[in-house]
Design brief:
Order of helices and strands: HEHEHEHEHEHHEHEHH
Structural class: alpha/beta
Distance between the termini: 39 Å
Strand content: 5-15%
Helix content: 40-55%
Radius of gyration: 18 Å
Mean pLDDT: 92
Largest sheet: 7 strands, parallel
Length: 265
């Protein structure tokens, strides 16, 4: 980021409580470091207590402020416990970044007996995020200030084969976010969806087919989220994703044939 962008980010987050899920690695870790350096009070959420503690110490060693909250966001009771603890200790969350997620690469044909794949992706990618929103949104509306950023995927725009469970869970969160943005329009709460392109993170390591594809680094991906915080747009997306989404709107059957040919290969 340029000096002016760093200044704009600091102006937006300095002294504010920013909760980041999936903060123990990848995009979440990179974003936590960037926001901690910008003066935010970073609330780190993920399952691994050890990894969160390492990141917390690293941020504080550079003069930042960070707090670790281990928890399983796919579990309703644990999520409720986490929300209660954060509100008790900090009073509010000013910016919520729903970044945690799991991805499954499996075709529909190989999923006939694996409905549980859809259940577990929805449990974390959709319901986990919704529970956090429901927990922190009332305070945002009461203060007439706040932002919710949901890290989605370019797959929602491109309809990537073999990712039905993952993309469906992100599409559900997208739809909910659009409704929320309408209802909270006059309450001072901004809702931003980030259609993240391919990013080289630990979550992608098992999918070797993408090794030959251009990928963003975790730091570059964190920059997209930071842009969303600075400018508070409705959506952050790449040109490729927007172009593909536009093409599908014009000629969905043609796009389906192209994607099916790639799927067969």
């Amino acid at each position: 980021m340029t000096g002016s962008e760093n200044g704009a980010l600091r102006e937006r987050v300095s002294g504010r409580a920013v909760l980041i899920t999936g903060a123990s690695s990848g995009i979440g870790e990179a974003l936590a470091n960037r926001l901690g350096d910008a003066g935010a009070k970073v609330l780190l959420v993920a399952r691994s207590a050890d990894k969160l503690e390492r990141i917390r110490r690293s941020i504080e060693a550079r003069g930042g402020s960070a707090f670790a909250y281990p928890g399983d966001l796919s579990n309703a009771e644990d999520t409720d416990r986490l929300i209660a603890a954060i509100l008790s200790e900090h009073g509010q969350v000013d910016i919520l970044v729903n970044n945690a997620g799991i991805s499954i690469r499996r075709s529909v044909a190989k999923s006939y007996d694996r409905v549980h794949d859809f259940e577990r992706t929805l449990a974390l990618n959709f319901l986990g995020a919704v529970r956090l929103i429901m927990g922190f949104l009332p305070g945002m509306r009461m203060r007439r200030s706040g932002q919710i950023l949901n890290v989605s995927t370019i797959g929602v725009q491109v309809n990537v084969p073999r990712y039905g469970a993952y993309i469906a869970s992100k599409a559900a969160l997208d739809a909910f976010s659009r409704i929320l943005a309408v209802e909270a329009l006059k309450d001072g709460v901004k809702v931003t969806t980030i259609y993240m392109p391919l990013v080289k993170t630990p979550m992608m390591e098992s999918t070797t087919i993408y090794d030959s594809f251009p990928m963003r680094s975790a730091e570059e991906a964190a920059g997209l989220v930071a842009d969303g915080i600075i400018h508070q747009p409705k959506r952050v997306a790449t040109r490729f994703g927007n172009l593909f989404e536009f093409a599908y709107g014009l000629a969905p059957n043609l796009v389906d044939r192209i994607l099916n040919a790639a799927y067969q290969l």
